[in-house]
């Protein structure tokens, strides 16, 4: 039994032992509902408050005067947030197919989702749509960003439907986290779920963190990061900025902790920012959210993950009105079947099922109220998996019958056909295949330059990345122009930004910024080249870095007519 101090008077540890020698933790259904709802409000408030800052500060602390001011009506900005509606896809799968749903069905449901995705989510879903079934959809052989933050920001549901049941959290991570993540990418979600599961029983923040830590392999880098944050907090409990600097030095600058990293989207550095807020926030709701936000990187997801377990430990009924009074109870979350009351109902329904599955009981007390009797259990984490030294692939593919259920099958070229260990040669292979005559200059390996079957519903995309902080990635073509020449293309940056320059014979004819401020849309450019009609010219498209974070360009429909 886990003998951490629980300290919450609504929770009773039954003194007796059952005939089978199992101890139970007793939680009233009313208290469960209150804390489960509080957990949802925490992640909603965190993501809405931090949204204006997302990825604007990387390797830098957000200045205090740049922190948005919370307004009660901001709580309803959550209904269109992928941090929330993606995990509701998983809830829906459990609701429709039961707790024993096969991972292949979970993969089909995720493949058929209609929202835009990024990072590991996008890579995993593309693999599923290509017919690569889970767990291979997340295997590093097929997924270039297995250690991204995706399941970490989507695992809240697992803890909220598994109060005090860490092994349910671990199992749900293997069912849904392996659709898109691998290794530390999965462990980040299992850790978060474990924190939520314990938050029903205590407000002791270190005890909550240690409960999450127990859910993941102790020898993983993610677990090492958690232990570091606990240690650094104990050493300097009043100075979160010194702890932030230690996080940067080890988990950003040390190459040993950047294996399979996708820059600032890496799960470990963002998990560190979550714990920075959760530990140094001292149980204060605003302080927890703003510290996790000010750490930078994915600074809407991180305060969401920090606030969720904290708000759960407190309960909805004890939250300040500024986080609850404007909440719209009728509106449904985008791409889901759930309003807030419907979300609460499905979580309670699944919790009752999980409780019985895990050997628990539901009893009516002398006061006429229902109680969950939750079996005390030691977490049994998975065996260690490393994204940079992955285990064998499962050779898992969808059957013809399963493929027939895919709404959006991808039947185009296999992106692995463009594989090459060198990122510049990889981009050049894509150009030779789709855009003959175009040549790429050097590319850095960051963000995995090369072919993408789909980015934000744009198909046939290729990605370039500048080779250095002060040097652009260049696409060039020498061409004899017609009498009415036009250059056209579509371009985006869905996670950061860059400066787009277009040159003809070294003369800049267009300069504009792409991406930034949450702009993930592709922009279309049609440039009249009439001044050079009939001449042979060199056209250059420059992916010019403006900083050094997610500076890639995503290109499609490149034409000279």
Structure description:
With 561 residues, the protein is of the alpha+beta class. The protein has two domains: 11-375, ADP-ribosylation/Crystallin J1 (ADP-ribosylglycohydrolase fold, Orthogonal Bundle); 415-560, Sandwich (Jelly Rolls). 35% of the residues lie in helices and 16% in strands. The protein has 16 helices and 14 strands. The protein has helices spanning 29-50, 82-97, 103-111, 119-130, 156-160, 166-176, 184-199, 205-213, 221-235, 240-251, 267-280, 285-294, 301-314, 340-357, 400-403, 423-434; strands spanning 11-13, 24-28, 361-364, 370-375, 439-440, 450-455, 458-464, 473-480, 486-492, 497-504, 507-515, 523-528, 536-544, 553-560. The strands form three sheets. Strands 5-8-13-10-11 form a five-stranded antiparallel sheet. Strands 6-7-14-9-12 form a five-stranded antiparallel sheet. The protein has a four-stranded antiparallel sheet with strand order 1-2-4-3. Residues 1-19 have low confidence and may be disordered.
Determine the structural class based on helices, strands and strand pairing. Answer: alpha+beta
Helix content: 25-40%
The total tally of domains equals 2
CATH fold title of the largest domain: ADP-ribosylglycohydrolase fold
How many DSSP E strands? 14
CATH class of the largest domain: Mainly Alpha
Q: What order do the SSEs take from the amino end to the carboxyl end, as H and E? A: EEHHHHHHHHHHHHHHEEHHEEEEEEEEEE
Biggest sheet descriptor: 5 strands, antiparallel
- CATH-level-2 architecture of the largest domain: Orthogonal Bundle
How many individual helices?
Answer: 16
End-to-end gap: 71 Å
Proportion of β residues? 15-25%
Low-confidence stretches: 1-19
The CATH superfamily name of the largest domain is ADP-ribosylation/Crystallin J1
Strand numbers in spatial order across the main sheet: 5-8-13-10-11
Instruction: Report mean pLDDT, rounded to a whole number.
Output: 92
Q: In angstroms, what is the radius of gyration? A: 25 Å
């Amino acid at each position: 039994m886990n003998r951490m101090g629980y300290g919450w008077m609504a929770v009773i540890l039954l003194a007796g032992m059952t005939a089978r020698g199992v101890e139970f933790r007793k939680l009233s259904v009313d208290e469960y509902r209150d804390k489960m709802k509080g957990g949802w409000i925490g992640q909603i408030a965190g993501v809405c408050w931090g949204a204006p800052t997302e990825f604007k500060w990387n390797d830098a602390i957000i200045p205090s005067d740049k922190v948005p001011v919370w307004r009660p009506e901001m709580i309803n900005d959550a209904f269109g947030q992928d941090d929330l509606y993606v995990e509701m896809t998983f809830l829906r799968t459990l609701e429709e197919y039961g707790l024993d749903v096969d991972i292949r069905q979970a993969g089909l449901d995720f493949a058929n989702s209609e929202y835009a995705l990024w990072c590991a989510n996008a890579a995993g879903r593309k693999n599923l749509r290509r017919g690569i079934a889970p767990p291979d959809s997340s295997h590093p052989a097929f997924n270039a960003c297995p250690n991204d933050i995706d399941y970490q920001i989507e695992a809240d549901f697992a803890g909220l439907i598994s109060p005090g049941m860490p092994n349910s959290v671990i199992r749900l991570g293997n069912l849904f986290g392996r659709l898109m993540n691998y290794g530390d990418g999965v462990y980040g979600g299992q850790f978060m779920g474990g924190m939520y599961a314990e938050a029903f029983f205590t407000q002791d923040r270190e005890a909550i963190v240690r409960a999450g830590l127990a859910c993941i392999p102790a020898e993983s880098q993610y677990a090492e990061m958690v232990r570091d944050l606990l240690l650094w907090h104990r050493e300097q409990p009043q100075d979160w900025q010194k702890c932030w600097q230690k996080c940067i030095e080890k988990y950003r600058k040390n190459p040993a902790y950047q294996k399979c990293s996708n820059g600032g989207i890496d799960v470990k550095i963002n998990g560190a920012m979550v714990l920075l807020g959760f530990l140094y926030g001292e149980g204060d709701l605003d302080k927890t959210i703003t510290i996790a936000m000010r750490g930078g990187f994915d600074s809407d997801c991180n305060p969401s993950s920090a606030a969720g377990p904290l708000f759960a430990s407190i309960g909805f009924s004890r939250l300040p009105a500024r986080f609850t009074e404007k909440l719209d109870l009728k509106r449904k979350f985008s791409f889901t079947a759930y309003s807030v009351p419907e979300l609460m109902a499905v979580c309670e329904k699944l919790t009752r099922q999980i409780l019985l599955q895990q050997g628990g009981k539901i009893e009516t007390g002398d006061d006429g109220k229902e109680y969950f009797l939750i079996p005390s259990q030691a977490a049994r984490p998975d065996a260690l998996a490393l994204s940079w030294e992955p285990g064998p692939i499962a050779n898992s593919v969808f059957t013809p019958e399963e493929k027939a259920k895919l709404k959006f099958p991808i039947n185009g070229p296999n992106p692995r056909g463009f594989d090459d260990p060198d990122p510049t040669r990889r981009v050049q292979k894509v150009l030779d295949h789709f855009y003959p005559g175009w040549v790429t200059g050097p590319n850095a390996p960051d963000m995995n330059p090369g072919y993408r079957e789909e980015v934000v519903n744009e198909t046939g995309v290729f990605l370039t990345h500048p080779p250095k902080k002060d040097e652009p990635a260049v696409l060039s073509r020498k061409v004899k122009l017609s009498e009415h020449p036009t250059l056209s293309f579509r371009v985006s940056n869905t996670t950061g930004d860059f400066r787009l320059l277009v040159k003809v014979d070294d003369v800049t004819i267009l300069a504009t910024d792409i991406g930034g401020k949450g702009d993930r849309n592709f922009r279309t450019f049609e440039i009249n080249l009439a001044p050079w009609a009939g001449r042979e010219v060199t056209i250059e498209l420059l992916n010019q870095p403006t900083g050094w974070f997610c500076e890639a360009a995503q290109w499609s429909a490149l034409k000279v007519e």
